[in-house]
Specification:
It is a multi-pass membrane protein. A two-stranded antiparallel sheet has the order 1-2. α2 (about 75-100) runs antiparallel to α3. The termini are far apart. The protein is elongated and about 60 Å long. The protein has one domain. It has about 140 residues and is mainly alpha-helical. It has helices at about 35-65, 75-100, 110-135, and strands at about 5, 20.
Length: about 140
């Protein structure tokens, strides 16, 4: 058996000793991990999730406003959705600052750590608020006949 990396595929001769080499060899690690690139990609992913949740909350707000003030949980739902949207905007702004600051500058580590911790706490509150939004529901329950 050869010392190359191999992969199984449908064309391999299962009865013989022939094996197909990997189509894409494993990339060698070129250098140390650039923490700025890692943090930027992580923050971009968080921002995309934040935008998706912001769109969902805007849609929920539209549905509640369409139901009108006679909806049973009108004020609590409007309040919860508003809190969620405000916190999401704050987290988005914080992520922009976190991405712009240089992680390699040790003078910024304390500030970045505080910002990350605050953003994490806000995200936790956003999740809890959205659980309550879902529990109260946006749609009016079907009337019992």
């Amino acid at each position: 058996m050869a010392t190359e990396n191999f992969e199984m595929n449908g064309d391999a001769d299962r009865n013989g000793d022939t094996e197909a080499p990997l189509r894409h060899p494993v990339r060698e690690h070129v250098g140390p991990l650039n923490m700025n690139n890692y943090a930027n990609k992580k923050s971009a992913a968080e921002s995309m999730l934040d935008v998706a949740l912001l769109m969902a909350n805007a849609s929920q707000l539209k549905a509640v406003l369409a139901e009108g003030p006679d909806f049973t949980y009108y004020v609590p739902i409007i309040t919860l959705i508003s809190i969620s949207i405000i916190l999401q905007i704050l987290v988005g702004i914080m992520l922009i600052f976190i991405v712009k600051w240089n992680l390699n500058d040790e003078r910024m580590h304390y500030r970045l750590n505080v910002m990350e911790n605050i953003a994490t706490a806000f995200v936790f509150v956003i999740v809890v608020v959205n659980i309550f939004i879902t529990a109260f529901g946006v749609q009016r329950p079907n009337p019992v006949s």
